[in-house]
Amino acid sequence: MDDALDAVVSVAPSWLGQWGPFAVVIGLLFVSWLFTRKVFAVQKSHGADTRYREQGTRLAFRLSGLLLAISTIPMNGELRGQLLSLVGLLMSAAIALSSTSVMGNLMAGFMLRTVNSFRAGDYIEFRNELGRVSQRGLLHVEFQNETSELVTVPNLLLVQEPYNVVRASGTVVSAEVSLGYDVDRRDIEAALLIAIDAAELENGFVQIRNLGDFSVNYRASGWLKEAGLLVSARSRLRGKILDALHEAGIEIVSPNFMNQRPLPPELKFIPKRRHQAQPDDDKTGHAEEILFNKAEVASAVEQLQIKIKKLKDSLNVEVAEGEEAPDRDALKAELSALTEELELARQLAKDEIARDRDTSNGDSEDEVEQASEPPAEESLLDESSVGETPPKAK
After folding, report:
1. Which residues form the Mechanosensitive ion channel MscS domain (predicted)?
2. Does 176 lie in the same domain as 152?
3. Which residues partner with 218 through β-bridges?
4. I need a labelling partner for 352 at 20 to 30 A (CA). Which of 111, 149, 216, 241 fits?
């Protein structure tokens, strides 16, 4: 320690006096941080995800700055040793006390990233709650549920408990209905298959799930290619099941259904079909855009990063003899356009995070008055983004 301090003193300007080593070390640390930020900025411009590395680098710089400041500030050698011992003791105590929670979640986060079973924008079902992943952190995973609420789950829970992930390539959409024993199962299966086709699902099939004491439980299932429209597809399938069963003359009433009014035996509990024009079902994902807005933006960022990586790989591939060379100018133009879309998507993601932080603050009277006038930066952002739509993952 003394030899290193003497080396720093030898290069420090004499006019700084005893504070020379401290100024030199802090200056070098500041220059290194500026260089590191520049490197991260270049990597971001090329579509790389540097969030976790940047967080780790900031932590390392802060700890290094604290230790170097104690080592170079002019003070008694015995006092310096006591301060360094105190810092080491505090760090050891913090690690020991948080080892069961923070370190456990940190190691679980590395495990989840290594397994890589889901990414931002994927549907995940945890503890019987369905949502879309909007953010993956070192200590937690955040997803939006079907009411657009943000749910934060520690990484340790995801490692210890099972969870279901909907594959991006497609999933099976199902709906169940209970019908009485007085209806022929073949008629029911035919009506359910018609409902599956009307819901625009592929490879439909019907299962008998349970033979209950009073009713039979049927499940209608079909393959959905667009996994991002899962919520709308489930609702659409249930609606088509209602329409198909009613059109087939099948009553959807429980065998326990009781009514004290005398009714004629030919009366059926099927609503009369209205002939007025009604809007078609939502097939464009409008419900998903509202419910999972933050997850949609995160998914767009992930998809754009994947596309940018594929384009870079295509540019770096060496063309063998006899093969037609790709149009490098077109690939570069597409890469530039995707990079701009990625920057816009990241800006939208930052706006979502800032909006969440703003809404989590206290709503005092002063804050309410300030909120009535938009900040200058937000107004400039809104003006610059007129006519632009957030990118969506295809």
Report:
1. 102-161
2. no
3. 177, 208
4. 111
